[in-house]
Protein 1
Amino acid sequence: MLRSKILSTGMYVPPNLFKNNDIAAMMDTSDEWIRQRTGIEQRYWVDENTSTSDLGVEAANRALKNAGIDKSEIDMIIVATLSPDHEFPGTACFVQKKLGLPGIAALDIRQQCTGFIYSLSIADQFIRSGTYKKILIVGAEVHSKGMDKTTRGRDVAVLFGDGAGAVVLGATVVKDAKTDSHILSTHIHADGTFADELWTQAPGTGNGKDRINEQDLLELRQYPKMNGKTVFVHAVKRMPETLLNALQVNSLTPEDIDLFVFHQANLRINDMIAKQFNIPEEKVFNTIQKYANTTAATIPIGLDEAVRAGKLKKGMLVASAAFGSGFTWGSAIYRW
Ligand code: ACO
């Protein structure tokens, strides 16, 4: 049976490290508050000359190198980001230009923290259908240029880091589903009822006469706004729900999964899910402590870190789940 599998991973974070105490020097917050509420200890933020596509290209080049393939073999590039280089065209076009791959399909996914799962799902369909053989998926974010880094914006600004992760997804013929690497399933969901519980309002055509005006800037509508409690409540409901569905569809139990690589919005969210499913600590691979929430980059960063740490090995069964703005959520189960 024709399926897709992850051939390789790659990641990149910019060199500028900001510990919680560095953030506390910018706004009224503390290392203790951030650690206790979120688990975050540090994050990396870009300098003024670095864009989302710059981070994405670094991660993509590492994934290409690790796949041991020539970039000319790539049929399509998918870039998931909520922090694009420019309003348009999509960041995938900038990544494509910098990689030197003119002519192939380039697609942006705007599903925030669930962006990587959506991208994986879409790429999987293109490969299963036989349309493409190799697809480069990049999750990349530069949050630091889009947040209010003063006390006013502290509820959001402490949570996010910049970074990029990438995978090369390739076609594979699965002979034995119990041993061969492949994507078993992906599930993607959204509920736009909650679109404005976590959003950046401006610029946008939903803002009256102008996409952005002086009043928008005065009222700081260019910065993300989050109803943290509502997001938390929905995350701890939807992530277990989609995970359970994915397990049931594949006739699996949580015990069958060797490693869980969840989205990293808050360590407390992932701890609650682990507790609910009785997942032992060593089976959950968390990176939020080091990188904070890197949104669409989070899961591919986690996969790459897990591979390099020797925690993710060939033949292992892996489960991912994510939840974020939209609201959007989803899950994937794959044999490494
Ligand atoms: N430092 C210090 N104090 C702060 C900070 C800060 N950075 N931010 C807020 N506070 C204060 C608040 O003002 C409030 O003070 P008050 O009690 O005097 O009013 C107090 O701390 C408590 O704030 P809460 O919002 O109640 O804190 P809570 O325990 O809910 O934690 C958090 C906040 C960490 C944001 C949590 O709600 C959360 O993790 N939510 C989910 C985030 C998430 O999943 N995001 C989704 C992905 S992002 C995406 O898709 C783009």
Protein 2
Amino acid sequence: MFMQHVRTALAALMLGALAMGAQARGSADDAGRQQNCSNVSRATCTLAHSLGRGVNLGNMLEAPREGDWGVKLEPEYIDIAAKHFRTVRLPVRWSNHASPGADATIDEAFARRVQWAVDALLARGVYVILNVHHYSQISGNGLHNHEFRVDPDVVDTRFINIWKQIAERYKSHPQRLVFELLNEPNGKLDGEPWNVLAAKALAEVRKTNPDRAVMIGPTYWNNVRDLPKLKLPADRNLIVAVHTYDPFDFTHQGVTWRPEPMPTGKTCCNATQKRSMSDTLEKARRWNAQHGIPVHLGEFGAHSAGDMESRVAWARTMRDEAEKRGIGWAWWEFASDFSGVWSPETRGWVEPIRRALLD
Ligand code: BGC
């Protein structure tokens, strides 16, 4: 009995310490908003609400080769991201580091590089979202420089086999590691093809990770517009990932990798723009209310070609719109040129963006 009390007291102390740590990093559920969790387990519901404020370590491990897009994953980034955010999303381009045949054997050196990051983040107490990012061929998109093409007949099987290997490698990792099947399915995956493929990949993951939370997002680049087309397998540990860059002509102004770059000079946020921003998250909230599966905002960001005042207003508005609906979020991105919150040049915060996200 005494030991029971000691254990209870210790557990209470640990929970208290965890809660204090969580408070320091802020969370989307601070406001006490809850999503409908009627179709997921209690553990996945709690996890979805604990993801809180997050950031993407973007343009690093999902470049065709790490460094191709100007940033490499430095140990310091892991420390800073984990200290200030509760969740880190780690985009990874496995497909370009795996053999071209159907078995898609992942290059061990690359797998170790990714695992170094995952383990370091988990050791620092954050939630980690590990995904398959930029497998361009699977959506029928053109390839990036330094990306290789594979036989079209093996593209989907490779995807399943990539997940088989990731799932095996991480099967004993803490439940704070969340898998996300595919970033922004689009093009030829739109609608039903993605429902079929996602179910197959999930079945493969479930062989080794029966209870881990897995994120699956709608097609059309994880756009809420395609939520009605998303048909999920029966599974009590799913979270739905959506992305938003509305209004697109503001967030993607001046992006040079678009086939036709959009003009710069767009400001934000007037009443119409604000309405489109809140409408997006309201659609996500309504979908959650109907389906009982929590939603996570895995990417949002405003390209650095926009003026800072507008980008700050946009970031703050989106953050508030998500948090008031109990939706955890991850900013796109940490230290690169889309909308980094940390500057590799000054080795310091991009303070106005940091404030908009975290203060
Ligand atoms: C892509 C990035 C892009 C961002 C905004 C992400 O999903 O991976 O390359 O900068 O969306 O468009």
Protein 3
Amino acid sequence: MNLTDIGQIKELFGRYGFSFTKSLGQNFLINPTVCPRIAELGGVDENTGVIEIGTGIGVLTGELAKRAYKVVALEIDRSLGPILNETLSEYDNIEVIFADVMETDLKRLIEEKFDGKEVVVCANLPYYITSPVIMKLLEDRLPIKAVTVMVQLEAAERICAEMGSRNCSALTAAVNYYAKPKKLFNVKPGSFMPAPKVDSAVIRLDLFDVSPFKVDDEKLFFSCIRQAFSQRRKQLVNPISGFFGIEKRLLAEEMAKAEIDPLARAEQLSMEDFVKLYRIVEQNKK
Ligand code: SAM
């Protein structure tokens, strides 16, 4: 069966009485070139285990399974079960688990399902939880090599922005702490059924084995980043001094000593600057 053929998809939906749930971000891929590209650029081969988030009717799942050692796919919508039984019946290396990715212990899943093979994540993410899913994949310190996902173009540009550039954000800094992000290619709304209102893009995050940034108190580090970006167009001395109870003049002096411009805004800082700022906060906070 051709899972990118609109006629065949409609016939399938009719037979199983399936209708889209908009709130679950159900925009299914119908452009036949996109799924093979995600699987190939995601580094999937016969020695790789793949976690997919959100199967839909299995169009990407099948492309991953053709190349992978095994695919474990999480899908929240149980009504897709009978459809997937039919569409993925030819593969013996796919396991679909009906669960919410945000509630799933992925570390345990990796230990149990992939026989110690290298693991990557590939997905066309539901857009309503893009940032929480990406942060979960990174913060849980999973033994995964790379995350290759479709997201809204705007999110892709934010995540992959250069640190120190206008487009960067707290999410950019958080991602850069754990991984090296790269935008791979753009995807137009017409590639999906139903078509979303926005453009999309596929990004790849290559996770660091060990973060190049030495931070002992990650909670405080991320709190500094969040505060710095909380008033992104203003000098970051203001929110940082206010939130952490550090006198402005002292903070500005310490920043100057650390070779950070005391007049800088968050979007002008590099990752190394954020690490230095965190150390200043750690030593001087009330
Ligand atoms: N991979 C399919 C494709 O490309 O056509 C479907 C992608 S669609 C953008 C997102 C999928 O994620 C939907 O099937 C939706 O039901 C599922 N989903 C939404 N929220 C989820 C969650 N919290 N956990 C797991 N799957 C979820």
Protein 4
Amino acid sequence: MCRIFAGIIKEGDIAPILRIGLKRLEYGGYDSAGIATIYEGKIHVKKDKGKIDEIHQKLNLDELKGNIGIAHTRWATHGAPSKINAHPHLDCNGNIAIVHNGIIENFLELKQELEQLNHKFVSKTDTEVIAHLIEEYYKVFKNFKEAFIEAIKRLQGSYAISVISTYEPDKIFLAKNGAPLLLGKGKDFNFASSDAIAFIDKTKECIPLEDNEIAIISLEGYEIYKLGSGTKVNRKPIFLNWNLEQASKEGYDHYMLKEIMEQETSMRWSLNAQKIYLELISDYMDKADKVFLVGAGTSYHSCVVGSYYYSKLATVTTIPVIASEFIENYGSSIDINTTILFVSQSGETADVLNAVDFARKRACTILAICNVIGSTLTRVARAYVLQQSGPEIGVAATKTYTSQLIIHLLLALNLAKKRGKISQYEMDEIKEALNEIPFLAGKILREKSKEIKEVAKRIINKNHVFFLARGLNYGTALEGRLKLLEIAYIPSTAYPAGESKHGPISLIEEGVPIIFIAPKDETRKQIIGNMMEMKTRGAEIITLAEEDDEEIKSLSNIFIGMPKMNSIITPILYILPLQLLAYYSSVLKGLDPDKPRNLAKSVTVL
Ligand code: F6R
């Protein structure tokens, strides 16, 4: 799991542009990084272990000369993070440099083959094998494009690859299979990257590559070919409406905080998601007997909440499934009559794409909620709706989660209308609630931050935190727990409150914090019962409940009062204080919430 960036410019040196772009890609991996350029007919490389700024401080990456180059930020899969394992990697003679995102599954057998031909390997990576393979084929073909294609054809696994070579010093060779790769087209330059955010300040004209395609970029433009047949592909650029400002920190200490705070805006965008696609997806869902909702991590949690929406509002049975379990659990029973709504912020999560691939082979109907236009998921789905969150840089999903919830709610409403399951009065009430969401989000975020910071101080030294809820907000408990666990490294458990007495209660003793999500809905009476059970056992009760709920207040050690709202929108708004709680807990512990250890923004390996 890494990110790559490559470019050629008419005038000046490419290295500073690559470094800045790479910095924006750091969310995809940050254990080592490097840049290679071609200058005066030779390849020059600077790379090291660590984050890009640290490496730049040490090596001055901008000093690299040359108008063409490739760059990489790494999240180790094969070979520990080290200078030697950092990309770019070279062939034996230093004429070919490569960066790669993905995993080459047959690299050991290729390596053995090449070692027998006297190739010398310096790293422990799977990537280096590609440089040597191209080198070997170049000896045969004496034509770099052909050598590149032949080498790529030998690879099994996933890859987004970018290569420069002294044999073709004015071209960048690219290949894609199972990992994202996009071209950025300009007048006096051309770029390629795992994510358009690397070049979005230079051009908004973007060309996504498909699996099993190769591309060549130069100052003259771009060419795309099918890997198998060699057929030339004619693909026009799409226009990206994100700007760089949207993708920078805008004065906040961390992307995560910025992204939490901008939810008033992102929610407004999501509420305006394209109606025709919402309509199309709900048409498919309407015709289905049952619908699977599939996602990983936070996106899966949105599916959990979604399943309550579809059932409560539209009486449609949906089954939320964790993407990595989908094939094992339902693979044998899905077929042409199965409809699956995949949810993925990035549209590139390997577990999700693996399930998509399987489902496509069974002729299932593939629908999607996604944030990234041009991502693999949006390209393979029968229909998709963009969640319109804007780019999310912080590794932890925050604004993209609330956007996904809004899309689920809009789809459920559409379905309810189609099926005649909702009265005009109910419809008007929910519409009113929807309109209030951005305003309420802004109010909660502005008014609750200080208070939440104090709560964070109370929990950061605890050994364990529980999150309990019922009904619609069970997903909120799951998501609040994931945020705290992954960002602040505080062991946490989330349960449906009713289930807590079937086991987890044995962990409760004096002072164990339990966060109850307890809005005024039909589950309130029961959840009060659960609070009492826990209180009598000495738990520290922290509640998120409506501000005038005196009964819950009297049971709580810490009470976080939320504004009055229609219970249907509570999952979208009650998660906000929990996102802040995770953020402040992380910062108070001296951690970097944007870069939790061992995690990457989009997990592109199985
Ligand atoms: C948690 C988080 C991850 C992602 C998961 C799926 O904060 O960000 O759990 O939600 O890796 O990613 P997408 O939605 O891109 O498929």
